[in-house]
UniProtKB/TrEMBL annotation:
Protein name listed in UniProt: Shikimate 5-dehydrogenase
UniProt source species: Odoribacter laneus YIT 12061
GO CC entries: cytosol
Keywords: Amino-acid biosynthesis, Aromatic amino acid biosynthesis, Oxidoreductase
Gene Ontology process terms (BP): aromatic amino acid family biosynthetic process; chorismate biosynthetic process; shikimate metabolic process
Domain Shikimate dehydrogenase substrate binding N-terminal: 6-87
Length: 250
């Protein structure tokens, strides 16, 4: 049976297996979706050898950048972003090559445009990992200037969490790309000054489990609009499925 999967560590929070398993059942697709909870990607070649029917896999925290050295090719977007969350496996007899894509940008763009009104010009991106790279890339494509908020700012395009307050006057979109608040650590949240938020602000959390995160709850309490990452997940999953099953993305 053809296989697809998810690689990351840990994977207790992930809904991808449930999503694709239900998709396969509803659409009567003869395939299965497996979780590969891998802390170190050094075992990836062995995994691919043991699963010859694996045709593609998603990549999540913390491997969206770790996967890059294993790839034979990358899409233009993945190269520009510097992170990959979707891999297509092309097999030829006993050989294979891995092709990397970034579908986070497609999923985020689709979900974001359904959430924010036109006219937002400035945003704060919380976190600086692989997901943040895709978010900043997408915001740039949409004409929204982004400023990264991180615990250890290293450039003029980054600030620390203690420096956020003055920027909230005109940075009306805040995107949480960190895993803070993800199940089971649902009480965690990014340490921003929530008391400065207003009904003019829009908080987008890439976390989707739980459905209503501590970040979202605190924003909503201040009157801000909030959205979780479920719509983004669906969008990037749809894009990944298209990549795995057609040649249109080549």
């Amino acid at each position: 049976m053809v296989q697809y999967g998810l690689i990351g560590y840990p994977l207790g929070h992930s809904f991808s297996k449930k999503y694709f398993t239900e998709k396969f059942e509803i659409e009567k697709i003869q395939a299965e979706y497996l979780n590969f909870e891998i802390e170190n990607l050094d075992v990836l070649p062995d995994l691919l050898e043991k699963h010859p029917d694996l045709r593609g896999f998603n990549v999540t925290i913390p491997h969206k950048q770790h996967i890059l050295p294993f790839l034979a090719k990358q899409s233009e977007e993945a190269l520009a972003i510097g992170a990959v969350n979707c891999v297509k496996i092309e097999r030829h007899a006993s050989n294979y090559q891995l092709i990397g894509y970034n579908t986070d940008t497609y999923g985020f763009r689709k979900a974001l445009l359904n959430f924010i009104p036109p006219g937002i010009k400035y945003s704060l991106v919380l976190g600086n990992g692989g997901a943040a790279k895709a978010i900043r890339y997408t915001l740039h494509q949409l004409g929204i200037t982004s400023l990264t908020v991180t615990r250890t700012p290293r450039s003029g395009q980054e600030i620390g969490y203690t420096e956020v307050a003055p920027y909230l006057a005109d940075h009306l979109l805040l995107v949480n790309t960190t895993p803070l608040g993800t199940w089971p650590n649902i009480a965690d949240f990014p340490p921003i000054p929530y008391e400065y938020l207003t009904p003019r602000h829009y908080l987008f959390d890439l976390v989707y489990n739980p459905e209503n995160t501590a970040f979202m709850k605190r924003g909503a309490a201040a009157g801000a609009h909030v959205c979780n990452g479920w719509g983004m997940l669906i969008g990037q999953a749809e894009a990944g499925w298209k990549i795995w099953t057609t040649d249109l993305a080549e």
